[in-house]
């Protein structure tokens, strides 16, 4: 049986309830917009299939678990004091963007070079050679 804990914008007192880490069937967790100001708990036994903790005041490192390593950056944003594994996603995304930009620039350069080559060949054919 799948259990989801969806506590969106309810103003949870204190921090993330520690009992959540013991729920074996918990798969989906959304604690967005709750003004949480604690650290994220490390004790989740089973990886969650979805986590979203947007716009709280969470601080400290994200847990080194599959759930948080694979979480989308958008699911963690709005937590100024949060650090850790989410930076890997930013660097991967930034690296991918730079690689994509490099491919696009390379393609444009190749097209420009090819166009110049074709133009030069046409000019060479059109100009009669004198002996």
UniProtKB/TrEMBL annotation:
Matches recorded under Gene3D superfamilies: Ribonuclease Inhibitor
Subcellular compartments:
Membrane
**Main site of residence?**
membrane
Q: How does it sit in the membrane?
A: Single-pass type I membrane protein
PANTHER family per UniProt: LEUCINE RICH REPEAT FAMILY PROTEIN, EXPRESSED, MDIS1-INTERACTING RECEPTOR LIKE KINASE 2-LIKE
> What keyword terms does UniProt attach to this protein?
Membrane, Receptor, Signal, Transmembrane, Transmembrane helix
Q: What is this protein called?
A: Uncharacterized protein
- Naturally occurring in which organism (per UniProt): Thlaspi arvense (Field penny-cress)
Q: Which regions span the lipid bilayer? A: 88-113
Protein origin, superkingdom: Eukaryota
Please give an example of a GO cellular component term from this record. membrane
User: What InterPro entries does the annotation carry?
Assistant: Leu-rich_rpt (IPR001611), LRR_dom_sf (IPR032675), Plant_RL_S/T_kinase (IPR051716)
